[in-house]
Design a protein that fits this description.
Strand content: 15-25%
Number of helices: 13
CATH class: Alpha Beta
Structural class: alpha/beta
CATH superfamily: Aldolase class I
Number of domains: 1
Helix content: 25-40%
Distance between the termini: 39 Å
Radius of gyration: 20 Å
Order of helices and strands: EHHEEEHEHEHEHHEHEHHHEEEHEEEH
Number of strands: 15
């Protein structure tokens, strides 16, 4: 059983198309996308929801739902100019990226997962960079594997810049560990096919080997031998922003043996974020996915070999997936104002375990707290 066994897939009719987040894009397509996958459950469809008790209280939880043990054992090896983890919400005390796990972190993670036992989950391994601290990552995988042995886990996905995987002294061991963990795929961030252009965006710290093209490409080939790899490119001014860039990125990825690429738009922000340097960069460098798709569809060099297959409607994102020759190519956009509305709805769409011991239905470590492992441990102690 995986997520796709519980996500309804329907033929995409005009009536359905007009109601989707992706409606502006779909209306511009020369022909309809064959199907739509409703990842976000209809609030009225009780079969897509589970009631589950967490900390003694019953919550209505979407199916499927992803669980993230937020990685923040150390500052990230990269300092991507657009990084959503450096956005600061108005009135927030401290973002999760600024928290570091204490000595009781893994006991707290065990406690939080115990509260979730019996609830079908998917593991979404993200936050800062999971692979930067091999010891922390290994201990985290141990805890998750023990939970998966006694409770249903549908999918397991790692989001990574690959830094730890390219370190000669630990990379091979981490690759073997991830393969043994049973990952369904890895979404590997690389925002340009040119080394210097990518470094101007991702800004890897001094001494991080993966910033260089040869170590990155060697790591990708090694990783792809044992795990399904999807390359992720955030489109932006100064990076991949035009159809010519799309074509060159796909050619480069294909040469690495990669057959799945995701092009992603900056998430749309609402007024709940401070106008810090990250928010200003996102505003200035944004490339509209609608406009980029329109440009691609108007270019015979791309459109002549591309066939749309499916649109996915998420709870705060949409994507369009298709085939370009022998590659799967996905275009994706998201909206944080919609995410916040859903998180504030009283239903649970996301589960995040933060370094402060809070299991939340939100990326904010102090909002929508469902279970506080630290307080539970104090009560038990």
């Amino acid at each position: 059983m995986n997520e796709y066994s519980i996500i309804p897939i329907r033929p995409l009719t005009g009536d359905i198309s007009a109601k989707l987040f992706a409606a502006p894009v779909l209306s511009a397509l020369p022909k309809s996308v064959p199907t739509v996958a409703f990842r976000a459950p209809d609030p009225a469809d009780e079969e897509r929801w589970r009631w589950h008790r967490i900390g003694g209280q019953a919550y209505r939880i979407a199916q499927p739902v992803t669980f993230t043990p937020y990685a923040s054992a150390q500052p990230c090896s990269a300092r991507c100019r657009f990084c959503s983890e450096t956005l600061v919400e108005t009135g927030a005390a401290r973002p999760s990226s600024g928290l570091r796990p204490g000595p009781d972190y893994f006991a707290g993670l065990e406690s939080a997962l115990h509260e979730l036992r019996g609830l079908p989950l998917s593991y979404s391994l993200s936050g800062l960079e999971t692979t930067d601290d091999a010891g922390w990552m290994g201990a985290m995988l141990d805890v998750l594997a023990r939970h998966a042995a006694v409770s249903p886990v549908l999918n397991r996905v790692l989001y990574s810049n690959g830094a730890g995987l390219a370190v000669p002294s630990q990379g091979e061991a981490l690759l073997q560990r991830l393969a043994g963990f049973g990952l369904d795929w890895v979404e590997l961030s690389r925002h340009h096919f040119d080394e210097a252009a990518n470094q101007s965006i991702m800004r890897f710290r001094h001494g991080i080997e993966v910033q260089y093209q040869q170590p990155f490409e060697a790591m990708v080939r090694s990783l792809a031998d044992s795990v399904n790899v999807k390359l992720v490119c955030i489109v932006q001014q100064g990076g991949v922003s035009r159809v010519d860039d799309i074509m060159r990125y796909l050619a480069w990825a294909h040469g690495l043996g990669i057959r799945s690429v995701i092009f992603r738009e900056f998430s749309k922000l609402d007024d709940g974020y401070r106008a810090n340097v990250t928010a200003r960069y996102i505003g200035a460098a944004r490339v509209s996915m609608n406009a980029l798709l329109a440009q691609c569809l108007a270019a015979p060099v791309f459109a002549g070999d591309f066939a749309f297959e499916q649109v996915t409607e998420g709870y705060y994102f949409w994507n369009l997936r298709g085939r370009f020759r022998d590659m799967q190519v996905t275009f994706e956009a998201s909206d944080y104002s919609q995410m916040h509305r859903q998180h504030d709805s009283g239903n649970v769409y996301k589960l995040v375990f933060h370094a402060n011991g809070n299991l939340c239905g939100d990326w904010n470590p102090e909002r929508h707290v469902l279970f506080a492992a630290s307080r539970q441990e104090q009560a038990n102690g």
